[in-house]
């Protein structure tokens, strides 16, 4: 039997704050607490995925090999096999749901913000 620690989503619920932040990526549990202030995308991104499966969000961004290597230092253990099918996410109202993660409003607003910034730049600086 493996000596790798197995975690449940119930255990991850206790680690969803700035003081202790764990998340799941590819069925592996990571303690990203120390990385909050250094995360290039901001701490909000990590806090949004805290205590749940952040695989989709992690892959959607297209992290570099260097970022993937950094995860090795934060590795705590694996998600328990019985938990793998749960893939719990939290909706905006705070209730747990199964399925894909709730979409962040920032994801929808970012293209609009970029477009507005480009327009302002063209109007005033070009």
UniProtKB/TrEMBL annotation:
Pfam families: Cyt-b5. Residues 4-80 form the Cytochrome b5 heme-binding domain. It comes from the Eukaryota. PROSITE patterns: CYTOCHROME_B5_1, CYTOCHROME_B5_2. It is found in: Endoplasmic reticulum membrane; Microsome membrane. InterPro entries: Cyt_B5-like_heme/steroid-bd (IPR001199), Cyt_B5-like_heme/steroid_sf (IPR036400), Cyt_B5_heme-BS (IPR018506), Cytochrome_b5 (IPR050668). Keywords: Electron transport, Endoplasmic reticulum, Heme, Iron, Membrane, Metal-binding, Microsome, Transmembrane, Transport. GO terms for molecular function: heme binding; metal ion binding. Gene3D superfamilies: Cytochrome b5-like heme/steroid binding domain. It is a single-pass membrane protein. The keyword Nucleus does not apply. GO terms for cellular component: endoplasmic reticulum membrane. Belongs to the cytochrome b5 family. This is Cytochrome b5 heme-binding domain-containing protein.
């Amino acid at each position: 039997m493996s000596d790798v620690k197995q975690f449940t989503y119930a255990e991850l619920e206790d680690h969803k704050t700035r003081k202790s932040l764990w998340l799941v990526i590819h069925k592996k549990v990571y303690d990203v607490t120390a990385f909050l202030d250094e995360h290039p995308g901001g701490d909000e991104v990590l806090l949004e995925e805290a205590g749940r499966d952040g695989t989709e969000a992690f892959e959607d961004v297209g992290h570099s090999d260097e970022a993937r290597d950094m995860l090795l230092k934060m590795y705590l253990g694996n998600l328990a096999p019985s938990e793998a099918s749960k893939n719990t996410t939290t909706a905006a109202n705070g209730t747990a749901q199964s399925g894909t993660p709730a979409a962040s409003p920032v994801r929808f607003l970012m293209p609009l913000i970029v477009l507005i910034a480009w327009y302002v730049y063209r109007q005033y600086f070009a």
